[in-house]
């Protein structure tokens, strides 16, 4: 019995020490999401559809002497780096503004379909992340008044990426696909 036990233990150790080749990790598609960085962004809010919202905790403001301000959101790829530039699609959506006015594209911020923003909504070749600028602008039509604005936006599928929320098997947490910026205009 003792010899059988020793032979069994040696056999199990030999089997456990065998080398197994592991293939390269890959997904059928690459996915994107907003990377949460607590040092730059505020707390997360869990909404009814289980999509997290991230917002700026730093001050973003415009006035007659500072007519543009920029806040950056990091978009992360769940997948592998590719040897070509890949386009990210982002679009605005309506959101409860909590006493702030909803920002208007082309008036209070540079729209995502503006050529200036289109060149920024790209993950460069051989990269798996990019900082996307949110450019808020001064509205001379309301000069002399103080107003608070909110601008909500979300990642949407593109030819190169799906949003992370479309594949719930990739993460135990809901994907971070929605974000918003709060900003003010004075003078």
TrEMBL record:
Domain of life: Bacteria
The protein, known as: DUF4843 domain-containing protein
